[in-house]
Design goal:
Elements: H1 2-40, H2 51-116, H3 119-129
Helix pairs in contact: 1-2
Length: about 130
């Protein structure tokens, strides 16, 4: 159970890091997209495919690829966390069932002792305890 809690905490931290990494990519992505868009729609300038244009396209593609990969990793981490949470709930339920079973066994064994002793034996037992 402790191991599951540690794994869950670790996975939650991992998810937070991934979400932050995705957010950190938004700024550079917007800048690269804006520069590329501005470059392709310059008034009174003929369109050309030069080194700068290719670098901008490559930069946009790389950022898009990185964000996609981060989102996939984030989705996988969230699925794993859900699995850990389900496993923890199942273990807690199992523990509760076992605790209830032990309690019932104890109550039944005490009532069986009370029923199995005749009245005379119970009085003698009380005298010896008292």
């Amino acid at each position: 159970m402790l191991s599951l809690q540690i794994d869950s905490a670790s996975q939650e931290k991992n998810i937070t890091v991934l979400e932050r990494a995705i957010l950190d990519q938004e700024g550079p992505a917007k800048v690269a997209h804006t520069r590329l868009e501005t470059r392709t729609h310059r008034p009174n300038v003929e369109l050309c495919r030069d080194v700068a244009q290719y670098r901008l396209i490559k930069e946009v593609d790389e950022i898009t690829h990185n964000v996609t990969r981060l989102k996939e990793t984030l989705a996988q981490a969230q699925v794993e966390l859900q699995g850990l949470n389900r496993r923890q709930l199942a273990l807690q339920e199992e523990i509760q069932v076992k605790e209830n079973t032990i309690y019932i066994d104890q109550v039944l064994s005490m009532s069986m002792e009370t029923v199995s002793m005749p009245h005379g034996d119970q009085q003698e037992e009380r005298k010896t305890k008292g």
